[in-house]
Amino acid sequence: MKAQRLGAWIAIAIGASYFIIPLLGTLEFSLRMRRGAYSFDAYESVFADLQFRETFGYSMLMAVLTIAFGMLLVVPTAYWVRLRLPQVRPIVEFVTLLPLVIPAIVIVFGYLRLYNSSSILPLTGSTSGTNALLMFSYMTLSLPYMYRAVDTAMRAIDVRTLTEAAESLGAKWPTILFRCIFPNVMSGVLSGAFITFAIVMGEFTMAALLNRPAFGPYLQLVGANKAYEPSALAVIAFAITWLSMGLIQLVSRFQKSASPKA
């Protein structure tokens, strides 16, 4: 028994070192911009860069819009499939998994082909249209994670009983959806939202090919032209991802602790 525990701890230590040691090396290198001493000069250079603030703010805005529109698409779809159309559930699940199979570069080239300036819907002919197209692209990439998170949360509640109870009190469909269903699946929505946020902040392919000032292409640009700033940006990007994962864990624990009281 002790040998098994020791072997398990050794395996965990090896796995953890595989991820932690390169990150520590990146962090250490990002602090060596000043010759002969550790400093935060690389981070100061990054935060003082106007392009960093612009691209980071742009990606933050796109992440918020992607989460909002994705939530408005996924929650009603998952609700309607579970309540009225359970027979199409395998088809919907298959469709939501397609972004994991089809490469992002194939998706964005398809969008460029369909929505170029000479098409019926020329989204790429204007800045606002291209921004909308990028947001829809991000929604496509995040669809598997958002749908799975919401669908899992919806399995934990009795959708049919909630709907029938609300209808018996005279509630209309918008009221049922936004006042009965949304609050009960909010943990799943938040989990999907944090994953979506991490995806949008680090995505490169779609933003680069659509020529949008996003954070992902900025990371690549700095990495190709500077030495210490890319390491600082990598640490910042990892911190954003870890923060999102930590918030997901907090939401999950809050849901578990609130379930017995409910």
TrEMBL record:
GO terms for biological process: transmembrane transport. Its main location: membrane. It is a multi-pass membrane protein. It comes from the Bacteria. Gene3D superfamilies: MetI-like. This is Binding-protein-dependent transport system inner membrane protein. InterPro entries: MetI-like, MetI-like_sf. The chain crosses the membrane at residues 7-25, 56-79, 91-112, 132-150, 189-210, 230-251. Belongs to the binding-protein-dependent transport system permease family. Keywords: Cell inner membrane, Cell membrane, Membrane, Transmembrane, Transmembrane helix, Transport. Residues 56-251 form the ABC transmembrane type-1 domain. It is found in: Cell inner membrane; Cell membrane. GO terms for cellular component: plasma membrane.
